[in-house]
């Protein structure tokens, strides 16, 4: 069952307008939810509800879509940027949807991020209990000690609490740098960088290779692909079951 949210929040998530503007439009009786005019402030709706603003009903497709995007370095994970920097949404100008990034990926981190207009999927994926695996390739200056890798695998104490155990694999090592593959399923701000900084390592480069079953295979920087309905359903189901502390069978590719 979908967790309901306030109408003005959904309108903002869909990229229709800001929350403040949404409240103004609602009070003027210009907003319809599933064909019914809503004037009640704080009205609760399902993330999958069809929202229409008078005069704008035919400008945007109403069906839900989700894309996997390979974010380049130096791109902001937001719909707009007040400093004029390039955003994730700038790469989707040919798509006739009101899209927004699902979660965040640091400005100086490249790789996999979801872009969607599906409020239900967004709420599920960004909820702290989603526990979707996120796999990164980190390039670290110098050599990484084996004991530090073991510590990361067990969990370490950061300023915002203990991290959960991570999957850490040594990928390549030279005298100048170490490449490490690390998988986490928490969503803390700059978490992977902070985990290495905890041991005074400098992260030279960081790329998110995948989000759970969703791999960047075949996608160059700045490219994206639309998720299949099967993939969307799997991600939603896994988030729901993780929220209930259950497990579901692993996704099987055709």
Straight-line distance between termini: 28 Å
Can you count the beta strands? 16
Supply Rg: 20 Å
Tell me the overall shape: elongated
What string gives the helices and strands in order?
A: EHHEEEEEEEHEHEEEEHEEEH
The CATH fourth-level homologous superfamily of the largest domain: Alpha-L RNA-binding motif
Strand-residue fraction? 25-35%
Structural class: alpha+beta
Question: How many separate structural domains?
Answer: 3
Average pLDDT figure: 88
Tell me about the biggest sheet? 9 strands, mixed
CATH topology label of the largest domain = Alpha-Beta Plaits
Could you say what the CATH architecture of the largest domain is? 2-Layer Sandwich
**Helical region count?**
6
Low-confidence stretches: 57-61, 246-254
Please give the CATH class of the largest domain.
Answer: Alpha Beta
Helix content: 10-25%
Provide a brief overview of the structure.
The protein is of the alpha+beta class and 254 residues long.
Based on the model shown, name its key terms.
elongated, 6 helices, single chain, Structural Genomics Hypothetical 15.5 Kd Protein In mrcA-pckA Intergenic Region, Chain A, 254 residues, nine-stranded mixed sheet, Alpha-Beta Plaits, alpha+beta
Could you explain the architecture of this structure?
The protein has six helices and 16 strands. By secondary structure, the chain is α+β, with helices and mostly antiparallel strands. It folds into three domains: 49 residues, Roll (Structural Genomics Hypothetical 15.5 Kd Protein In mrcA-pckA Intergenic Region, Chain A), CATH 3.10.290.10; 73 residues, 2-Layer Sandwich (Alpha-Beta Plaits), CATH 3.30.70; 78 residues, Alpha-L RNA-binding motif (Alpha-Beta Plaits). The strands form four sheets. Strands 6, 7, 8, 9, 12, 13, 14, 15 and 16 form a nine-stranded mixed β-sheet that branches. Strands 3-2-5 form a three-stranded antiparallel β-sheet. It has a two-stranded antiparallel sheet with strand order 1-4. Helix 1 crosses helix 2 and helix 3 crosses helix 6. The longest helix is centred in the C-terminal third of the chain and has 15 residues. It is elongated. The two termini are 28 Å apart.
């Amino acid at each position: 069952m979908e967790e309901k949210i306030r109408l003005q929040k959904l309108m903002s998530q869909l990229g229709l307008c800001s929350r403040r503007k949404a409240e103004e439009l609602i009070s003027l009786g210009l907003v319809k939810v599933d064909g019914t005019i809503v004037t009640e402030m704080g009205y609760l709706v399902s993330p999958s509800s069809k929202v229409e603003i008078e005069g704008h009903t035919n400008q945007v497709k109403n069906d839900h879509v989700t894309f996997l995007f390979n974010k380049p370095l130096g791109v902001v994970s937001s719909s707009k940027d007040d400093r004029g920097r390039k955003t994730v949404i700038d790469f989707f100008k040919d798509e006739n949807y009101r899209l927004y990034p699902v979660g965040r990926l640091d400005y100086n981190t490249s790789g996999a991020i979801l872009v969607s207009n599906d409020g239900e999927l967004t709420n599920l994926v960004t909820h702290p209990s989603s526990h979707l695996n996120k796999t990164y390739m980190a390039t670290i200056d110098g050599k990484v000690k084996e004991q530090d890798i073991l510590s990361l695998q067990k969990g370490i104490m950061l300023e915002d609490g203990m991290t959960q155990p991570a999957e850490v694999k040594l990928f390549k090592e030279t005298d100048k740098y170490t490449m490490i593959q690390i998988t986490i399923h928490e969503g803390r701000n700059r978490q992977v960088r902070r985990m290495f900084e905890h041991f005074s390592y400098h992260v030279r480069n960081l790329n998110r290779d995948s989000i759970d079953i969703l791999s960047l295979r075949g996608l160059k920087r700045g490219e994206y692909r639309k998720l299949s309905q099967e993939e969307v359903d799997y991600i939603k189901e896994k988030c729901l079951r993780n929220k209930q502390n259950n497990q579901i069978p692993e996704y099987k590719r055709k």
